[in-house]
């Protein structure tokens, strides 16, 4: 397909990446990946349930081939993710007797030692090969009065797990850019909590280098103006920013579903992609990388989240052909 390379078009602005699994390393998918993307994020292969399913038994059977593919093809890798409430095995939150942890000093010490062991092993394996890591993922919950997610991490350690994770990560791989990653960061309540949290941690000397904005959106959300305001606010903290998981669902609610996606939706999707990429590009000094959460529409998490339904949230369709969304970013052919 003789179309411009997305990464070449965007090179003056930032690195562009895609989330992948092992299927994307083969055949026509690998060709598309190599042509258009300068960065990859393993979509699941580095999560705790994949890398340490039982305590101390580390496995890298999915992650190694992805990182090796990147190295062989001159593609950069973002690590995702070291500490999260989801896709984390239950053993992590069990106490010495095998029961679910309650908040005690002993459990806090045990949980933080597990966190540190995990980060040392997983980050350590790829030391020097990752340009960035999502050290901690999804700490916000605007339904809580403190704005923070009351995950097991939080219940047992308060916010100490965040500082501990970043300090440990910095010690393991000082060259990697360390990110705190979250979704819906353009929503004012979440944005403000994250801004205060990162500012406070940085003032305490916690080595946070970057804020990751997931940017899972839809045809009409988030707006360009909220996105620009969000980037400008975090720029005041002196951190880098990365767009880490962008996609644009063709649905604006949690219930509808199409059997065929209407052309009008794909046209509107292209307009949303263009509006947000225009914001990213005009804020290039603050944004070092933009990653799409998938390579093409044949492999998107949105086909099963929040419900099973046909979606088409990426730049390339199920036949790996460039969509209107791609052309809206690259400029018309
Ligand atoms: C998703 C993966 O894409 C799916 O394959 C998996 O079943 C669930 O997780 N926010 C994140 C990502 O930080 O890790 C999630 O990835 C999507 C939402």
UniProtKB/TrEMBL annotation:
Domain GH10, residue spans: 1-332
Name of the protein this chain belongs to: Beta-xylanase
Superkingdom in the source lineage: Bacteria
Family indicated by similarity: Belongs to the glycosyl hydrolase 10 (cellulase F) family.
Whole-protein residues included: 195 to 527 of 749
Protein source organism: Peterkaempfera bronchialis
